[in-house]
Design brief:
The complex is a heterodimer. By secondary structure, chain A is mainly α. Chain A has a domain of 243 residues. Helix content of chain A is 70%, strand content 3%. In chain A, the strands form 2 sheets. Chain A has a two-stranded antiparallel ribbon. Chain A has a two-stranded antiparallel sheet with strand order 3-4. In chain A, strand 3 and strand 4 form a beta hairpin. The longest helix of chain A is centred in the first third of the chain and has 27 residues. Chain A is globular, with a radius of gyration of 23 Å. By secondary structure, chain B is of the alpha/beta class. In chain B, the strands form 2 sheets. In chain B, strands 6-7-8-3-9-10 form a 6-stranded mixed beta sheet, with helices on both faces. In chain B, strands 2-1-4-5 form a 4-stranded antiparallel beta sheet, with helices on one face. Chain B is globular, with a radius of gyration of 18 Å. Classes of the chains: A mainly alpha, B alpha/beta. The interface between A and B is medium-sized, with 20 and 24 residues.
Chain lengths: 370, 246
């Protein structure tokens, strides 16, 4: 194996100045987009912010507390439906966004309580969360009848609720945000969530979460009630997913059972794995890279988009197994380490490839090597 | 044999402690008492039940019957995180540490619950000095040698400042020099803390032992000073002749 000197920080350290510069650059990048990009690109990218929060929620949980919640989409969907139903009933959107966050966190709190305090093992937790989101999907799909009404909103079953209200200005609810402003709000919220989660990792709470990921039993023997920490992380991630769901529903605009679906749940895994598990910027990058790639594939007349994406996922798992961003991040380190790599390569060639050209005798002399 | 001790001097006690796995009694009714400040070694041949006993003392497994009393409180059904808060520090046989983070952070996580965020820093510095770990402070624990990882874990237990420390084979896999340093450290810590050690290494036990408890087939076979244990005929027999204790 090649051990590059990865130029990465420890998650528990306070971010250095260059991290803030990076975040500022990222923010500037997004904020200037509406000025030079076409409106349909802005519309497409507006969808990504909600997805990015869904990805962040999983990236935080999986990468830093070691909890693989396959069903983060449950809280994503709850956020989307929660926002839509409340906003349609009340005609008010700002409070409804907060409600979406609270609903995601509360859903995660209830489900998480039984899983975490019941000491369900990791693999069952993944299965249960997945089943939970699929149950919600089935449940929502079965609400097409007239009797399924919350307040004055019909849930519409398979068809979803297409009348999701656009966000309005918090201090002046009579004015709705236009496409550009919604884009900016989405971008800023995503970056704020990113900064928030990053800073949480530097707090004692975040450090203990990483401790639980590394060794849960030791963490408990040190006197931490791991269940409380895990539940808190689970609820936090549920809230972030709920916020993502609300933004996503507004951006399409549609609150649809598909938000809870298996396909969506698998997307989240893919975003995080391809972007880079164990980082927070990775999941965001994963969303933008994959979703953009998907859109591009769609326009290229490739019939089997899913198949191509599957191949991409396999490639990443096998070759760039740390994910896109950590792999890029370790490139400068690899450059510094190039002598070692040359050595490794030479060794690799000698051990595995020389038999093709070299005489069989030579190979026998090296026999016994693994 | 076991001496009569005053009630208030007892820090850890078991009463008629039993553990059955299926039909087998791993521990078959053990009454055990430990005085404050003692350094007690638990020995016995393989399968004698000392590891099961250790796990029950530290509430890592629940007894089938009987009680484990720490400061007069039954802890046999306590949660793992409560054990540490009561003042019990545990080091299991396999290094139980955080491989993916630095030595410093390992110690900080140990010091934090007891000392709070600020004082934890000072405690970490203190432990780094006492265990001479300063040079490897910022290294990832997973990259260190086995002996160093054991030491870091020992430091983590010390950072808890427990009333009692329970160690399961603390010198397993250590070099002779490391073992000697560990023995010296255990004796130093014992000035302020009660210690229980489960050990195989007789050389090491001779270095540190105060009173030794010998387990055999789930029961206490003998409990005495090391010198008298070595002279004990019954103990010699269960160790298959005398080679183990010679």
């Amino acid at each position: 194996m090649i051990h590059g000197v990865a130029l990465m920080q420890h998650s528990s350290e306070r971010p250095k100045w260059w991290w803030w510069v990076f975040v500022a650059a990222l923010a500037a990048f997004f904020i200037t987009m509406p000025f030079h990009l076409e409106i349909f690109v802005i519309l497409e990218m507006s969808r990504f912010f909600g997805m990015a929060m869904l990805a962040l929620s999983m990236g935080f949980l999986w990468g830093f507390s070691g909890i693989l919640s396959f069903g983060q989409t449950a809280f994503f969907g709850l956020g989307g439906y929660g926002f839509t139903v409340l906003a349609l009933n009340t005609g008010e959107t700002t409070g409804s966004v907060f409600f979406a966050v609270a609903l995601g966190a509360a859903g995660a709190g209830i489900l998480g309580y039984f899983m975490i305090y019941g000491r369900i093992s990791e693999i069952y937790l993944s299965v249960i969360t997945l089943v939970f989101t699929l149950i919600l999907e089935k449940g929502i799909r079965a609400t097409s009848g007239d009797q399924y009404v919350i307040g004055k909103v019909r849930l519409n079953g398979q068809n979803g609720i297409p009348t999701v209200p656009q966000l309005d200005v918090p201090w002046n609810p009579s004015v709705q945000l236009d496409i550009n402003w919604f884009f900016w709000v989405g971008a800023v919220l995503m970056i704020l969530v990113y900064i928030g989660l990053r800073l949480i990792l530097t707090t004692p709470f975040g450090r203990v979460l990483v401790g639980i990921r590394e060794n849960e039993r030791r963490t408990e023997l040190l006197g931490y009630d791991a269940r409380r920490y895990k539940l808190a992380a689970f609820m936090l991630a549920g809230g972030v997913a709920g916020l993502g769901g609300a933004l996503y529903a507004i951006s399409i605009p549609l609150a649809h059972p598909e938000m809870f679906s298996l396909g969506r749940a698998a997307d989240v895994i893919m975003w995080v794995l391809v972007g880079g598990k164990g980082t927070l910027i990775g999941p965001i990058a994963g969303v933008f890279a994959i979703e953009h790639f998907k859109g591009w594939l769609g326009t290229q007349g490739v019939g089997q988009v899913t198949l191509v994406l599957g191949a991409v996922l396999i490639l990443f798992v096998l070759v760039f197994h740390k994910g896109l961003l950590p792999s890029i991040g370790s490139l400068p380190g690899l450059w510094l380490d190039r002598a070692a790599i040359r050595e490794q390569l030479a060794e690799f060639v000698q051990h595995h490839l020389t038999w093709r050209s070299g005489p069989p005798r030579r190979r026998r002399r090296q026999g016994g090597r693994p | 044999m076991s001496e009569v001790v005053r009630e208030d001097a007892v820090i850890l006690e078991t009463r008629a402690l039993e553990k059955r796995f299926g039909g087998v009694s791993a521990i078959a009714g053990v009454d055990f008492a430990l005085r404050r400040g003692e350094l007690r070694c638990l020995i016995g041949p393989n399968g004698a039940g000392k590891s099961t006993f250790f796990k029950m003392l530290t509430a890592q497994i629940r007894p089938s019957k009987g009680q484990v009393l720490f400061d007069g409180r039954d802890i046999s059904r306590a949660h793992p995180h409560e054990i540490s808060r009561l003042g019990i520090g545990i080091k299991n046989q396999v290094p139980d540490v955080y491989d993916g983070i630095t030595v410093d952070e390992n110690l900080w996580l140990a010091a934090h619950p007891r000392h709070g965020a600020r004082a934890a820093r000072a405690k970490v510095d203190d432990i780094l000095d006492r265990l001479e770990l300063r040079d490897i402070r910022w290294q990832l624990l997973g990259a260190l040698a086995h002996g160093q990882r054991q030491w870091v874990e020992f430091g983590m237990v010390m950072a808890l400042e427990p009333k009692i420390i329970l160690l399961d084979e603390p010198t397993a896999g250590m070099s002779i020099e490391e073992t000697n340093r560990t023995a010296a450290l255990i004796r130093e810590v014992n000035r302020t803390t009660t210690i229980v050690v489960v050990e195989h290494d007789m050389q090491f036990i001779r270095q540190i032992a105060d009173i030794v408890t010998v387990f055999h087939q789930g029961r206490i076979l003998a409990e005495d000073t090391m010198a008298r244990i070595q002279a004990n005929q019954a103990v010699r027999e269960v160790y298959l002749g005398t080679s183990g204790l010679a």
